[in-house]
Amino acid sequence: MKSAPRRLFVLDTNVLMHDPTAIFRFEEHDVYLPMVVLEELDANKKGMSEASRNARQVSRFLDDMMRDLVKEQIDAGLVIPSGFSGNHGKRPPSGRLFFQTRALSAGLPEGLPGAGADNAILGQTLALQRQEAQTRVTLVSKDINLRIKAAIVGVHAEDYYSDRTIEDADVLYTGVQLLPADFWERHGRDMRSWKEADRTWYQISGPAANAWWPNLFVYQEEPQGIEAIVRSVDAQAARLELTRDFRSERHGVWGITARNREQSFALNLLLDPDIDCVTLLGPAGSGKTLLALAAGLTLTLERNRFVEIIMTRVTVPLGEDIGFLPGTEEEKMEPWMGALMDNLEVLTHSEEGGSWGRAATNDLLRNRIKVRSLNFMRGRTFLNRFIILDEAQNLTPKQMKALVTRAGPGSKLVCLGNIAQIDTPYLTETTCGLTYVVNRFRGWPHAGHVTLVRGERSRLADYASEAL
């Protein structure tokens, strides 16, 4: 059998500043770093931004790998250590890391002078491609324009894919599954049902049950069809619990009811004391923030389950930045928390008590709802808090991990977002922190997820979501 050709990946600076562990992600293939990449890492190492921290981390990785080595060993290529634990099931690296140790004639077209960093990297890749004729040389970059120029001069270029949690956002776990029409004919024979207090339980075995996950919602379209949550799955059977229907006035949450099936499922997760982490995806107007806030107020003020509600979000502007904001941490965050104010207005809207009553209610709620900035989360621990993270699609996986690990005993974290509205550069639907958490927490008994599919804000907003 003919062996595959050796592959050599030339990494652009933006790949390393996006994911400092990128040098460990290429399995048995070799990695090459041009000298201009090291220069750019050095130029970007200062600062408190995520990119600057990543640049410093790359330098630390390289320093650890090069320690006590002589030039001859560096010229032969550094063995990439296999002890790195962040490959998530991929094969450990077995290739080598090469640096540019001598000048290579670029041979760029006359219209592309090699003075710029991007063109210098492109020239190095072109020279390597000519020098290593038996090797498939690939330029890896997050820069679309550099990949376009590479294609024009005949260099194979690719985007950086190893940070993708999933291959396609369309196959992202939704947390909801429609049961087939013949479900009971195929699975009803060995079914067992019973009641515990006011809840109804089913134990079902069969091919469909083997493909379920804990905290997956299953339902039937028929008016009297079942709506249940999978509580546990083992080799023999799955246990289902019928959900509460929050679409009825009898089960209203802080004065509101669910307007569709997915909202009802979301409230089941938000009010469940055994669920520590809830993720809600959905388009604009699907009710993510309103449901989370209503559940948080119910659990905090009515059931005394939590001490207070902590609300935060990523401060990425939609348009031009408006500059520095005066005041305390909470005052600086207020312009970013318009969603909180809008939803509080809905939840406190009542004719009883008039304007004085509403003002008193708002003051009470504001004392139990604290707005915090993500910039000061490092090292904090939240005890018995209901934490709402809005616009979570703008977080990187590393930032998401830093935030989720802030939750202490008795706290509940709710992550909200719409992966179709990402404002952070270099993040996509498949690489953002929200997708990362949904995929990694799937199957954990204390985490649940629901994708809300229908907007309920207004007919104008619904039509705009579809048509624009």
Could you give a quick summary of the protein structure above?
Helices cover 32% and strands 18% of the residues. With 468 residues, the chain is an alpha/beta fold. It has three domains: 7-158, 5'-nuclease (Rossmann fold, 3-Layer(aba) Sandwich), CATH 3.40.50; 173-242, no CATH class; 261-467, Rossmann fold, CATH 3.40.50.300.
Summarize the structure in words.
About 30% of the residues lie in helices and about 20% in strands. The chain contains 16 helices and 18 strands. The strands form 3 sheets. The chain has a 6-stranded mixed beta sheet. A 6-stranded mixed beta sheet has the order 7-10-11-12-9-8, with no helix packed on it. It has a 6-stranded parallel beta sheet with strand order 15-14-16-17-13-18, with helices on both faces. Strand 10 and strand 11 form a beta hairpin. Helix 9 packs parallel to helix 10 and helix 10 crosses helix 12. The chain starts with 6 loop residues before the first strand and ends with a helix.
